[in-house]
Design goal:
The chain is of the alpha/beta class. The chain is 49% helix and 7% strand. It contains 32 helices and 15 strands. The protein has a 5-stranded mixed β-sheet.
């Protein structure tokens, strides 16, 4: 099902502006069909699609233009390929007259793309002429289409590109960019100098030796032609001139546009305001979410149905671009294939989000059910690599290698039979081979191409992964052997050169490492990981200035890169620029609070150079906590893989959020999973002097000998939170799964109890046994559900500005109640009785320890 305006469940920028009484023009934005009834003009992304010859009716489907009264006017503004003049076509293909269009359809493609982008430009200028407007947003997809079709012919010519094709189509890409510059010039003139103009693209294209020779025969295969980096350019009143900004993301575009209109940013938006573009500091405000703001946003309701005609056209376009395969006749196979693709896309999304544990079971199942689909195995291997599950990776790599060898041998036999059947001579020139291929039917062309690809004996992937396995085992000499074999197979992979450089770093072969990283940069000149590798080499060789320059180059490409900031800090220390080094390492820690090396190094900096002993002790303490947590996580790494997710764990007594507005409407909350020590914490806070909001409906028993400290209304918090004001200046217990139902009108001071998951599950099991519950539970499923819930809660908390939180580890609180009481007192502004809180802790109630694995548990939940 294609994505449409009906698929979106959150407000777009024009919906937000609509309810702020601002007028927008939205032209050909993807996806914008069917159009929304916004204040202004919306023209859908199906508007420009050519669906008929010029001498036949060219109907424009309903839902293409809003307001509908302008539909005829916009329909007239469309441009058909057959309306193109010869000189316009020749600007792209000077020798167009030499092309036999019955055999070569590429000229038709050029004309179609050119006509469609002209239609988009025509619609944009027409919309701008309809009256005053606040935002005009236009999406040009022609550059993408031109590049997918013709970047292969862009100079310089490569060996596999036929010279005749090169001479015909080598100028298409340059002409496409020139034409877009001309259209942009017209829009700038029409908009006027008082308009802020932003140009963005989410990716580029490889124009050089990195252009792929073959496009993978799989859905979304053409994306291999993309470069990772796009662009962000802004100009207008109050915008800096000739400045470079770093670390911009497409997620930052909407917050930045909102700031242009002096509107608040949603805390649920993942991006940030690119405030560095402004000449003067711009105040930025925030709200919880624009989706919670009432008003006419002109969105379709979730119940409204998609337009089948528009869906069909969108599918046709994706098939034409090569992003999806055309459906065959076997419906069951089609359904299975599509289900597999959806699962694969989900796994890839998890991997992009660095949630590899969620991707593992999906990919394991896909590769088991489809052993010939090696892309599933390759991605699974990358998951195992990211999770450092080396035994699983090693087994998978060998299985992958055997399967690919078998497939290669079978394909070689099938290819011989196919070529013999189609009368292909064994010894044939390139020219004759081209003629033979062109004589095949479309189906047989695909068959031949697939067999040709599969018949190649695979070397690169498995040798590359074998090298990683050996390196993970500390066998760096062996790793290097595998990596150099992979290099002989495919030397132009920057990632391989970086891995070779990393291996040389481990072997302390600095010159070889430097050469490898430079080879990676020769292949891909803007590879941030290669620059970081060089920074590490220069640091090892005590060359701080080039190390700093390489680290800065890394940061300029990817700002959110803690190791790059850390390396910059180390270089600055070697250069004795200590204040700047402090800033760099603190940025690394801000981006990754659990960066042990950074905490340790800045502690030395504070101790030896900056003479700030208190800060040194603080960072050493954090580093020590991180070390213990890493030991705990490494011990359970394989369990985490099986559980499908890692729970976010915050160090004992760490605090988060310091932005309460100190209003009088503050509620104290104790939360955590059931059986994580929440009742013990309620006892401590009560003894310390806090007033509790609880009732006696649930009496003390052998599971909680000192009581539950619960309030019955909490159980209906997800359906009714109107009563929560009763908790102002008091403390109540809320299980973690219900925390997200707290209303935003109050401030919350939350104590979050954390406990080893094995202990939590064992304690819950023991409690169920005492209650003689018939409930039979699967600990693995419950563990996964709890982990997912806790991770979701952690992300939710990060968006809130009315929460201050203190994390308490249950076992550490039992071991050292004094430090826990001191932290609780500081958390409550020094108002609690620390001695009384210590007395409330009874170590004898802590039975279900992970190291004891007892069958009894009377720990307070």
């Amino acid at each position: 099902q294609p994505v449409s305006n009906l698929s979106r469940r959150t407000k777009a920028i024009w919906n937000i502006l609509n309810q702020e009484k601002k007028r927008s023009n939205v032209i050909a934005w993807w996806p914008s069909s069917p159009v929304e009834p916004i204040n202004g003009v919306m023209v859908s992304n199906h508007y420009q699609s050519v669906v008929a010859p010029l001498d036949e009716p060219w109907p424009m489907p309903d839902g293409t233009v809003h307001p509908g009264t302008l539909a005829d006017q916009f329909a007239e503004a469309r441009f058909h390929p057959q309306e193109l003049m010869a000189d316009a076509v020749q600007a792209f293909v000077p020798d167009a007259h030499k092309i036999d269009q019955d055999k070569d359809k590429r000229l038709v493609s050029v004309m179609k793309i050119l006509a469609e982008c002209t239609s988009v430009h025509s619609a944009t200028t027409l919309a701008m002429d309809q009256g005053d407007w606040d935002l005009t947003a236009v999406y040009h997809d022609a550059i993408d289409h031109f590049c997918h079709g013709f970047m292969k012919f862009h100079p310089p010519r490569r060996k596999h590109i036929h010279e005749e094709d090169y001479e015909l189509y080598k100028g298409v890409i340059d002409a496409a960019y020139c034409y877009h510059d001309m259209m942009l010039g017209g829009l700038l003139q029409k908009a006027g100098e008082d308009t802020t103009v932003i140009i963005v693209s989410d990716h580029g294209f490889h124009p050089d030796h990195n252009r792929p020779v073959e496009i993978p025969t799989q859905p979304a295969g053409p994306a291999i032609e993309h470069r990772d980096f796009g662009i962000f350019v802004a100009a207008g009143p109050g915008i800096k001139h000739d400045e470079i900004i770093h670390g911009a993301s497409q997620l930052d575009v909407t917050p930045t546009i909102l700031s242009l209109f002096d509107l608040p940013i949603g805390n649920d938006m993942d991006g940030r305001v690119l405030s560095e573009i402004y000449q003067q500091e711009k105040p930025i405000s925030y709200i919880n979410s624009w989706d919670e703001v009432a008003g006419d946003c002109a969105m379709y309701s979730a119940e409204e149905q998609s337009d089948p005609i528009a869906s069909k056209e969108a599918i046709k376009q994706l098939i034409a671009l090569g992003y999806i395969d055309e459906m065959g006749g076997d419906m069951q196979k089609n359904v299975t294939r599509m289900a597999n693709e959806l699962q694969f896309n989900l796994a890839m999304s998890y991997m992009d989000a660095n949630i590899h544990t969620e991707a593992v079971p999906i990919l394991e199942n896909l590769y088991t059910e489809n052993p010939d689909q090696h892309r599933y195995g390759i991605q699974l291997s990358l998951c195992y690599r990211a999770l450092e599950d080396i035994p699983a990776l090693e087994k998978l790599v060998e299985r992958l290698h055997k399967r690919r060898i078998t497939q290669s041998e079978n394909a070689q036999e099938a290819l011989k039979k196919f070529q013999a059947k189609e009368n292909l001579p064994e010894d044939i020139s390139d020219e004759k081979l081209r003629e033979w291929i062109s004589s095949l039917s479309d189906h047989n062309k695909k068959v031949w191409k697939r067999l040709k690809v599969e018949s190649n004996i695979p070397v690169f992937d498995t040798e590359y992964l074998r090298g990683y396995v050996a390196a993970a085992k500390g066998k760096h000499e062996e790793a290097l052997k595998h990596l150099l074999i992979a290099e002989k197979a495919q030397s132009i992979r920057p990632g391989l050169q970086i891995q070779i450089g990393e291996t040389y770093l481990y072997l302390k072969q600095w010159e070889n490492a430097e050469r490898a990283f430079n080879r990676a940069l020769k292949i891909e000149s803007e590879n941030p990981h290669a620059y970081l590798g060089l920074a590490r080499v220069y640091l090892s060789r005590r060359r701080p200035k080039p190390a700093a320059q390489a680290a800065i180059k890394t940061i300029s490409l990817i700002y959110e890169y803690p190791m790059a900031h850390f390396c910059l800090g180390r270089a600055l220390i070697q250069m004795k620029r200590y204040q700047e080094a402090e800033t760099a390492i603190l940025i690394a820690i801000k981006q990754n609070p659990n960066f042990k090396q950074a905490h340790t190094r800045i502690a030395l900096l504070y101790e030896r150079q900056l003479m700030q002993a208190d800060k040194a002790r603080e960072h050493r303490a954090v580093a020590k906590l991180i070390s213990k947590e890493q030991i705990r996580q490494n011990k359970n790494r394989n369990a985490f893989i099986k559980d499908q997710s890692k729970t976010v764990y915050h160090p004992h007594l760490s605090r988060r959020g310091s932005y309460l507005n100190k209003s009088n409407k503050c509620i104290n909350i104790v939360t955590g999973l059931p059986r994580s020590g929440t009742s013990m914490m309620m006892q401590m806070l009560q003894k310390g002097g806090l007033t509790l909001l609880s009732d006696e409906q649930r009496q003390a028993d052998e599971n909680n000998p000192r009581g539950y400290y619960e309030y019955a209304d909490v159980m209906r918090l997800h359906t009714d939170n109107s009563w929560i004001g009763e908790g102002i200046d008091r403390c109540l217990k809320v299980i973690a799964q219900l925390i997200q139902n707290l209303p935003d009108e109050y401030d919350y001071r939350i104590v979050f109890m954390q406990r080893d998951m094995d202990e939590v599950l064992a304690s819950q099991s023991t409690m169920l046994g005492r209650l003689k519950s018939a409930q039979q539970s699967d600990d693995n499923n419950i563990r996964k559900a709890y982990n997912v819930q806790l991770n979701q809660l952690d992300r939710w908390i990060s968006t809130k500005n009315n929460i201050e939180i203190l994390y308490v580890d249950y076992s550490k609180a039992i071991e050292n109640p004094r430090s826990t009481a001191e932290a609780l007192n500081r958390f409550n502004n020094g108002k609690l009785d620390e001695q009384a809180m210590c007395i409330a802790v009874d170590p004898t109630l802590y039975r279900e320890r992970a190291d004891l694995q007892t069958s009894e548990d009377t720990s307070t939940d």
